[in-house]
Amino acid sequence: MNLLLDGIAWILDPANQTGPSGWFARLGEQLAYTFGAVAIAALIAVPLGYLVGHTGRGRDIAVSLSGGFRALPSLGVLILLGLGLGIGFKAPLLTFVVLAVPPILAGAYAGFEAVDRRTIDAARAVGMTESQVIRKVEVPLGLPLLIGGLRSAVLQVVATATLAAYVSGGALGAFIFAGVATRDYAQTLGASILVTTLALVLEGIFALLQKLVVPRGVVAKELKDVRARSSRTRAVMGTPIREGK
Amino acid sequence: MNWVSSNLDLVWELTLAHIALSVPPIVVGFLLSVPIGWIANRFRLTRGTILVVLGLLYTIPSLPLFIFMPLILGTPLLSSLNVSVALTIYAVALMVRTAADGLASVDKDVLQAASAMGYSGWQRFWRVELPLSGPVLLAGLRVVSASTVSLATIGSVVGVTSLGYLFINGFQRNIPAEVVSGIVAVLLIAVVFDLLLVLLGRVTLPWSRRERTGSPRSARQRTALLAGGVS
């Protein structure tokens, strides 16, 4: 536990906070990697996922892509791109885009798929055009699942961004690797605590966001479902049950 | 390809080390998750808390967790136990929600029927709940397996031998072929594990094969497969 206190002391030490190699700046780099990569990935994956979800075509490819990428070792991809593209922010950024695409793609098409087919039929029946069906029905109803996809992408990238320091320096991982190399355990632990806290805070924000984007009508139905219990949750004793009469 | 053919022994040795490092977390994680998932379902108040707290464990980035492990366990810095235990934590974090959902997906009428037939709670769990939630559990296990095999590579950053060694060594000596062979070997292990799990499912859950692909149950398995991930 003493070491843990050393780590917290390292975080609180003003000498480690400001300046270009202080943890404020490194935290900023970590966030820039995360949101930069997720934004680029979203530009690719959201239209693609919507296309798959709306038309139902290429579903199998999308499923195996988003499932199979889970086994792709991020460190290996990062190092391979680092060897190819050289030192700089490009290799880590590209790696994180590759990591972020599958969960966002899955969130986008699963969101469209989860919409009840009858709802879409109803939307067509009241005269909505194809683009209205997408914009006014499928996108809002699929939003919670899309945010879920973005949430796992952000978490995956913010965790992996720690490894960026291995090929190009920068971000919070820089402290972890420097600490391991110089046996400065307080520095390693301090940075580890910061990365973990950052991940937990982002998780909390996204969990909240995911709740907030559920359309009002859907929330109302959920509430109603809770109240309207089946009339036969308990066994009926004594009186015979007459069904369908 | 030259690099691979001249270093086949090294790759094979690391592959075995990698398998030895990733199999125990998958197995132990599964064995821990099912009872925890059952407890989470059994007592309504605990369900939310257990699932949220264990789910949050998965958000801890792997490199920091590998570094925290010696402090918590009191193990030496380079012990492979650090990585194994950390991977088990991730396996449990991923698996518990699927286990709870799988057990909850068993039709209540079936459970009542089993009780009415005179099954005790213990028998009912082993003979009804567990087999019927099998397909969902298997889907979760496949996700855990892929994620564990991939995460084990990061252990090599903290000095625990796995296929990740090929990444580190390939980077230091600037041999892209070495890094590529590491990636391919990890993917191969993941695919073989996945096939073995599917085979295991065929043997232990023979009835699930007859289910049509469009059923709500298979849709649920698909959503389980899509559950998010961290590395």
Give structural notes.
The complex is a heterodimer of chains A (245) and B (231). By secondary structure, chain A is mainly alpha-helical. Chain A has two domains: 2-214, MetI-like fold; 216-245, no CATH class. Chain A contains eleven helices and no strands. Chain A has helices at residues 2-12, 23-55, 59-68, 74-85, 90-113, 117-125, 130-160, 164-168, 173-182, 185-212, 216-227. The N and C termini of chain A lie far apart (69 Å). The model of chain A is unreliable at 225-236 and 238-245 (pLDDT under 50). Chain B is mainly α. The radius of gyration of chain B is 20 Å and the shape is elongated. Residues 227-231 of chain B have low confidence and may be disordered. At the A-B interface, helix 3, helix 4, helix 5, helix 7 and helix 9 of A face helix 4, helix 7, helix 8, helix 9 and helix 10 of B.
Entry summary:
The complex is a heterodimer of chains A (245) and B (231). Chain A is mainly alpha-helical and 245 residues long.
Looking at this protein, list some descriptive labels.
heterodimer; A: 245 residues; MetI-like fold; 11 helices; elongated; B: 231 residues; mainly alpha; 10 helices; disordered C terminus
Portion of residues in helices of chain B?
A: over 70%
Main sheet characteristics of chain A: none
List the helices and strands of chain A in order.
HHHHHHHHHHH
Q: How many DSSP-defined strands of chain A?
A: 0
Shape of chain B: elongated
Which architecture of the largest domain in chain A would the CATH scheme give at its second level?
Orthogonal Bundle
Unreliable spans of chain A? 225-236, 238-245
Give the topology string of chain B: H per helix, E per strand.
HHHHHHHHHH
Oligomeric category: heterodimer
Structural class of chain A: mainly alpha
Residue fraction in strands of chain B: under 5%
Output mean pLDDT of chain B. 83
Total strands of chain B: the figure is 0
Q: What is the CATH third-level topology name of the largest domain in chain A?
A: MetI-like fold
End-to-end Cα distance of chain B: 29 Å
H/I helix tally of chain B: 10
